[in-house]
Amino acid sequence: MTSSGVHLREITDDNRDAVCALRVRRDQEQFVASVATSLDDAADEPEENPWYRAVYSGDEPVGFVMLSWNVPDERSGVGKYYLWRLLIDEHHQGSGIGREVLTQVVDLVRADGATELYTSYEPGEGEPGPFYLRFGFEPTGEIDDGEIVLRLTLSAR
C-alpha cells in the first residue's frame, strides 16, 4: 500500500470507535498511548491547545496524530508546536504512512507560522527515536519527564 492516499480527518461520532480501535504492536505500547487515552489527555489538558486528527489511507482509518498547537511561550518548555502523539496501526506500519503524516503536519504548522516542531520519546528497545532522526529531528539535549526532546527546524517554503 502506498502512502499517496494518506490524509487527515477530524474525529467525529461516526469514526471515533474505528479510530480508537487502532493499535500499535505490543512491543510498542510503552512508547505511545492509545487513541482513547490520547483523547482523554486532550480533554484533561485544554491548556495544551490539543489538535488531533485521524489518519486515513483511502477510506480506512490507519492512525492518529495529536499536537499541542501554537501554545503560548510562557506555558511551554518544549516549544509552541509539539507533536504529542503519532500512532500508526500495527497492520499499516512500514509503508511510509508515518512519514507522510509527519510531512503533512509539518506543512500545516509551517503554514500557521511555526519555525520549529518539537517532539519527545521514551528511550528503549524499539523506540521511535530513529524514525524521527531520519525525518530530520535533532536532539535538543533536554530530557523532559524521562523523554528525549527533539526539535525539527522548519525552513520557509
UniProtKB/TrEMBL annotation:
Listed name of the protein: GNAT family N-acetyltransferase
InterPro entries given in the database record: Acyl_CoA_acyltransferase (IPR016181), Bact_Acetyltransf (IPR050832), GNAT_dom (IPR000182), Sper_AcTfrase_N (IPR027455)
Enzyme nomenclature, EC number: 2.3.-.-
Cited PANTHER family: AMINOALKYLPHOSPHONATE N-ACETYLTRANSFERASE-RELATED, AMINOALKYLPHOSPHONATE N-ACETYLTRANSFERASE-RELATED-RELATED
The keyword Transferase is annotated on this UniProt entry: yes
Protein source organism: Pseudonocardia yunnanensis
Annotated ranges, domain N-acetyltransferase: 6-155
Top enzyme class: transferase
